[in-house]
Amino acid sequence: MRPDDLASLDFEAERDAETTSWQRAAPVGALIESTGPETHIVTLPDGADAHHVELVEDHGRFLGYCDGKGFEYNDGPCAHLCTVRQAAFVGLSDLNGRRITIPPLSSVRAGTDSAVATDGGRIEHIEAPPTGHDGHVFGRPEGQL
């Protein structure tokens, strides 16, 4: 997932306006399979096709994507994205019994190649150079190579 590919989503506006997407969302009757922390395959009860959905949270706002036409031709989130949001909000599980969550973008960006730091950040493996810019090995007195 590339964050540039994700659209900013306002689920509160969808809910308050009682849009078709929000009303059509069916977290209890839908088939939701989590394929990663931020990715899901969603099939709505009234839909024939499964759709790939990506949804993350970034500092209080939601970013997402769906491969369905409802997302492509809509200004807001489609019913598939609304379904995942509603399912996460009420704590439902997917087809495999895993709780549906919306992870923070920072954890998705960090990937799996680094370790978690105590402040919640990531520690990347950085190899220290064997010598300084002048060719001397660190920790040795000047003039001794």
UniProtKB/TrEMBL annotation:
What is the name of the protein in this document?
A: SWIM-type domain-containing protein
**Which species does this protein come from?**
Haloferax mucosum ATCC BAA-1512
Give the source lineage, highest ranks first: Archaea, Methanobacteriati, Methanobacteriota, Stenosarchaea group, Halobacteria
